[in-house]
Structures are given as structure tokens and as C-alpha cells.
Amino acid sequence: MQFKINVDAALSKNDLKVSAAAIARDENGCFLGASAMVLRGISDPEVMESIACREGMSLALDIQVANFRFASDNQNVVKNIL
Fold it and tell me: What 3-state class would DSSP assign to 56?
């Protein structure tokens, strides 16, 4: 069975709050689980995207998925992870 984990991050310009989230779905698009976190004081988008990737990998461990595709909108972060 094929699984996909999407990750993303968002930064607030006003109060330096940032969030990272991950969502897992199976090959039919059925929801398997999600994870999110909110942090303060990080202003670098690539750092937050990296944290979102880490959150996605933690989600995979939590839902016991070993074989999955990873999706992120930040190509630099993905290249550096591989």
C-alpha cells in the first residue's frame, strides 16, 4: 500500500509565531493522521520547512508507516534532506 505525507509551514509577520504541520493519507486519499506544532521566534522559512519535514517523519513513526512518499513545497529543503 502506498502512503503520502504532505508537510508545510507558515510564518506570521506580526508576532513571529510559526507553525508546521503534516498530514498522512493512504493511496485512496483516506485520512490516516495529522500533526501540527506552533513555535515562536523563528523567522527563516527554510528552517520552518525543515521542522515541518521532521514533523512529517515523526508522524510516519507515530502511525507506523515505513513506506511513504513525502510532499513539500520547498525544493531546497527536500534536496538537503536527501
Answer: helix
